[in-house]
Structures are given as C-alpha cells and as structure tokens.
Recover the amino acids of this structure.
C-alpha cells in the first residue's frame, strides 16, 4: 500500500476530524457533539474509514469509485439522523457545516473517480449526474432543516415529498388538465401544422423565399405574449392554452423542417433521379429521413416551449384546475409546499417529455454522423 | 431550383422573383390582407348582434367599416394598432406611465441585466465544463434538465425567496431572464471552446504553450463565432424571460404588466400594441447583437462567408 497525495481526500479526512471537535447541534440548552447519537457516530466513522482506505489505495477503477460513492451515502445519512434527534441551531452547529463541507469533497472525489470509467460504461454515465443531483437535494434538505428555514420561504425536499403524497388527487387533476389536455393537444397540432406547412411551402419555392426571412424575425418575437389574446378568443378552458401552444410551436417546427428538407445533397438527388423516383418517393425515402435530426431538434425545443406556454396562459385565466392556476393561487395562500410540489411535477413531466423525444431521436437517427461518432 | 436562380436578364417575373425583397413583401402584404379579412370575420358576429338589438338596418359596407373601428374588438385592424402605437409611443412624454416607451424601458432594463448575468454564468459554466471532466459528466445533464423545467412555475417562488433576502424590483426579474438565457450560451461556448482541432492543439504543444496560453490564444478566439450565435438566441429569450417575469410579480410597470392589465380590462388594442412593441424590441436587440458580431468578427479577421 502506497500513500497518495490526494489533496481532496486529505481535506475530507481532516475536515471530518475537525468537525468532531465542534458542537453539531443543541438539545435543550446543551451543545451536542457527534458521539451523542451512537448510530450517526458509527456512520461517520464508517465513511471516514473508507475515505482513508482510498488514500492508501492507488486503484482508480469502477469498484473504487462505487465504494467512495457508497461512503458518501453512508456519511450523508449521519447528519440526517442527528438532526432528527437534536435540533441544530444554525450557526451554533459549526461542526455540522464543517462536516457537510467535508462530504462535498468526498462526493466530488466519487464523481471524479466514476467519470473516469464513465466513457466505457453507460450505466455509470447516468450514475454520475444522479449522484450530483442527489447531492444537491441533500444539501437543500440539510440546509433547510439545519438552519430551520421557515417552510413558507423554502420547504425542505422531504416536506415537498409529503405535500405530493397528501395532495396527490389535486395534483393529478392539475396534471391532467395542463399536460394531457392542453400541452399534448397543442403540441400535436402545432408541430403537425408546422410540418405540413413546411412540406407545402417546399413545393412552392416562392413561398419559401418569402417566408424564410420572416421566420428568423419571428424567432426574435416573444410569442408568449399572445396568451391573453388567445384566452379572450377561446375562453378559459384548455382550448385557449392549446391555441397558445399551437402558435408557439408552429414556427420552430416550420423553420427547422424547411432547413431539414434543404439538407439533402446533390448526389442523393442525382441517385434518386437515376432510379426514376418521383417527388413523393424522393421526399419519403431521402429528404424526410435526412430532415429527421432537424425535426427532432424542433420537437425538443417545442417540448419545453409547450410547457411554458400552457402555464403562462393559465396565468391569464383558467378554470379552477391546472398547474399554472395552482401555483398562482397557492402562492397567494402561502401554501408554499404545494407550489413546490407542483413545480417538482412540472419539472418531472418536462424532463420526461424531453427524455422520451431524445430516446426516440436516438432510435430513429442512429445512422446520423452525430451519433455514429459518439461510439 | 437552380434553373430559376441562373436565369439572368430573363422576363420581368424572373427578375422580380430573384430580387430578395419582392417575395417577402408579397407575403407580408398577404398577411395584412388576411388580417383585415380576419378582423371583419371575427368582429362581425358581435356587431350583427348589436345591430339587431338596436334594430338598425345595416349594409355590408357599414359592417366592414365598423369592424375595423371597434372600441374593444376581438381582433383589431392593423391601422387601429398603428394609431394606438402613435398615441402611446410618440404623443406621450416618455416619463408618463401611459407611454409605452416607459414600459418598454422597464422591461428592457431587466432584459439587459439578465442577459449580462446569463452571459457571465454561461461562459463560466462552459469554461468549467471544458476543463474539468467531472463537471462535464455531472453538471452537463443537469444544465439540460434545468431547461425542461417551465421557468414560469418557479418565477413566483424565486421572487418570494429573493424578496425575503431583500432583493426586489429589477434583480428578481433579471434572475429569471438569466435562468432562461444562460443555457444557449453554455451550450454554444462548450461547442466553441472544443472547436479547435487536434492539429491546432498540437501546434500549441510544439510552441510549448501552457494550458492558460492555449486557452486565451486558441480556445477563446475559436469560440467567438459560436458565442455570438448563442448570444443572438439568448437575448431574444432574455426578453421573453423579462416579460414572463412581470406576470406573477403583479408588476405595474413593463410590457408584461401592460399585457396583464390589458387582459383584465379587455383592452385588446392595448395588448396588441404592447405585443408589437415587444416584438420590435426583440428584433432590435437581435439586430444590435448581430451588428456587433459583424464588427467583432471583422476586427478578428474572420472572412465573411
């Protein structure tokens, strides 16, 4: 075994040892030290032991990375347990914050070790960002509970989780109204219309010459502003939200599809000509597949635009259901945990929407240069 | 398609066709005609109701004329918007609360502040991601995920939290702009900083250049064209962010507040004129960025393609 000059891990070990000397919380009037709770002290020692073990092991493989990651998880559960037992009084708990800083170093080391092997292993390539995300949520939890931040200001992740499970029915109704009714309808019609108009415009070059310069102007226009007008035209229910989304998603789709249809090279055209292929055959077998990367680009942009459009439109008037409505009313009633629960669901829906499109893109455009080179 | 563009000195039609402005103006004209027709179509049902209620005889001519000059139309005619714009932009003093210039300035200031914040954040993140592999692996997926969260959902919370910390007014709005506009800059800069090829990096190595020299003398200059492409996207969505941020804050100033007030009181012409000003503002901002792009790239000696 050889000692390594691993600055980050040395920092981790030293900070953990320093944190032992300071109080980590208050119970009654008494300052609490780490050993007040046997279980959390054992967890702390365990993660410290793994950290020091890594200091003497030069290996940088998957196993070591996972081991350090597990040490982070073990070490992270120690303060959570302690906060349940004793209340931490913000700045009086210096030991706790030193320890959290030490854990940050350890988490960084784990991510660095894992990203070394992430190029070869796709699962690990997902573990690294997951670890980062969990670390952020953990930090949020420890800071909000540790400093006893009032939940009116910023509820802790566990409180948000409870709010989700308590209000599941309401949140589902909001989700159904906003996502299933408005977003999906608007997205389908907007993207479909953009696509069809693009093919139509492609048939008439004059339209193309006239529309393309206008398209770049439209991209500078804040189209969300159309929301109040659509609410006036189509009423408070989901139709007006879908209309906003149709308009917002139409132009990115039109512009990208037009650009995509131009992407086919002269050689491919010549080949199709030598096959005596007609316009439609060329379109379906060569030009549309070539346009797919552009179309997916538009679909991905539109997935985020659609969510924004629906929620903005709900600010201008809505029946008493919907995510935007929930946020604006519950902020007024100071039920901040429900607001954050809605935000969490919106984030989850948005990411899933985007993720599904990205997966579909990978499936359908696997032949494209940008994916071939990645392997 | 090449056949039409090769046509030199052909018929009048072909000359018009190849002249760039002509197709665009035809399309614009068509949009305006459709707009006027749409105004008649959408406003007529309410007008006909009115006529029948007051038992006046009406002709088509009168209907068309009335539908283009309603007080609160469902779809105002373009000239009504122009008149309203003239009234609120040129006739009012710019310090007046009724002047759209004043509201546009409020929105513009938070747009620009958010744009500056976003650019700094975007560039810093990109530099970190390019140089630290761990950041590339751990942070990059979250940067993409951050954009799938509908910002407006968070906007009220950002304003509540920042308001508690004593930050009110301009800063919370520009934070929302920043949240939207840092993303394209990070993506563009990562691409740009990684754009130097192996050959160029090898050349720097033969000069025994340090990492920071390679960064300042090769990577940064190589990334400038990418940076400007991103800036053009970023400034447009920074404006969207500023307008959207004014909605949940219950702001009384700014273009977003004008939209909100217009929708409360059914003032369609006010909404449309605020929209037109916002669009012009967006186009102007993008135009300024692309102008500075041309200047900077020419100074750097990039050949215009």
């Amino acid at each position: 075994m050889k000692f390594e000059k691993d600055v980050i891990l040395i920092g981790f070990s030293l900070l953990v040892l320093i944190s032992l000397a300071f109080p980590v919380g208050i119970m009654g009037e008494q300052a609490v030290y780490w050993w007040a709770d046997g279980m959390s002290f054992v967890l702390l020692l365990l993660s410290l032991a793994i950290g020091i073990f890594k200091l003497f092991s030069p290996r940088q493989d998957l196993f070591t990375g996972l081991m350090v990651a597990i040490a982070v998880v073990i070490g992270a559960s120690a303060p959570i347990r302690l906060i349940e037992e004793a209340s931490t009084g913000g700045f009086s708990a210096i030991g706790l914050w030193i320890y959290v800083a030490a854990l940050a170093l350890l988490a960084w080391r784990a991510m660095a070790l894992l990203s070394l092997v992430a190029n070869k292993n796709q699962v690990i390539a997902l573990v690294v960002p997951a670890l980062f995300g969990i670390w952020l949520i953990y930090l949020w939890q420890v800071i909000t509970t540790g400093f006893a931040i009032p939940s009116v200001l910023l509820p802790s992740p566990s409180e948000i989780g409870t709010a989700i499970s308590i209000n599941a029915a309401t949140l589902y109704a909001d989700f159904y109204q906003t996502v299933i009714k408005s977003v999906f309808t608007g997205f389908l019609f907007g993207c479909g219309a953009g696509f069809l108009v693009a093919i139509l415009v492609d048939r008439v070059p004059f339209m193309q010459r006239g529309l393309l310069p206008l398209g770049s102007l439209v991209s500078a226009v804040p189209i969300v502003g159309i929301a109040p007008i659509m609410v006036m035209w189509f009423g408070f229910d989901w139709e007006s939200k879908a209309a906003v989304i149709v308009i917002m998603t139409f132009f990115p789709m039109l512009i990208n599809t037009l650009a995509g249809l131009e992407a086919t090279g002269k050689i491919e055209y010549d080949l199709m000509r030598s096959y005596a292929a007609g316009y439609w055959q060329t379109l379906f077998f060569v030009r549309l597949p070539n346009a797919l990367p552009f179309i997916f680009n538009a679909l991905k942009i539109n997935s985020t635009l659609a969510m924004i459009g629906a929620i903005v439109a709900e600010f201008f008037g809505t029946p008493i259901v919907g995510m935007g409505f929930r946020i604006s009313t519950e902020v007024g009633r100071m039920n901040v945990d429900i607001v954050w629960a809605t935000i969490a669901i919106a984030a989850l829906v948005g990411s899933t929407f985007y993720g599904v499109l990205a997966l579909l893109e990978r499936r359908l455009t696997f032949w494209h240069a940008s994916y071939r080179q990645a392997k | 398609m090449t056949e039409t563009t090769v046509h030199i000195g052909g018929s009048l039609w072909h000359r018009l066709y190849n002249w760039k402005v002509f197709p665009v103006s035809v399309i614009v004209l068509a949009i305006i005609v459709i707009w006027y027709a749409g105004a008649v179509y959408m406003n007529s049902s309410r007008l006909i109701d009115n006529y029948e209620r007051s038992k006046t005889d009406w002709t088509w001519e009168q209907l068309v004329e009335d539908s283009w000059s309603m007080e609160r139309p469902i779809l105002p005619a373009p000239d009504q918007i122009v008149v309203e714009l003239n009234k609120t932009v040129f006739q009012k003093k710019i310090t007046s609360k009724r002047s759209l210039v004043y509201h546009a300035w409020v929105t513009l200031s938070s747009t620009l502040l958010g744009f500056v914040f976003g650019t700094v954040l975007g560039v810093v993140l990109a530099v970190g991601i390019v140089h630290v592999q761990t950041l590339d692996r751990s942070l990059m997926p979250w940067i993409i995920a951050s954009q799938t969260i509908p910002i407006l959902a968070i906007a009220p919370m950002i304003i509540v939290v920042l308001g508690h910390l004593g930050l009110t007014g301009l800063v919370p709005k520009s934070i929302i702009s920043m949240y939207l506009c840092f993303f394209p800059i990070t993506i563009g800069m990562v691409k740009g900083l990684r754009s130097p090829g192996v050959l160029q990096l090898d050349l720097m190595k033969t000069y025994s250049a340090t990492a920071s020299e390679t960064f300042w003398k090769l990577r940064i200059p190589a990334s400038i064209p990418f940076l400007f492409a991103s800036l053009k996207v970023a400034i447009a969505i920074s404006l969207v962010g500023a307008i959207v941020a004014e909605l949940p804050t219950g702001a009384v100033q700014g273009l977003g507040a004008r939209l909100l007030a217009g929708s409360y009181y059914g003032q369609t012409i006010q909404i449309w004129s605020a929209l037109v000003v916002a669009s012009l503002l967006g186009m102007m901002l993008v135009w300024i960025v692309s102008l500075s792009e041309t200047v900077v790239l020419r100074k750097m000696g990039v050949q215009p393609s």
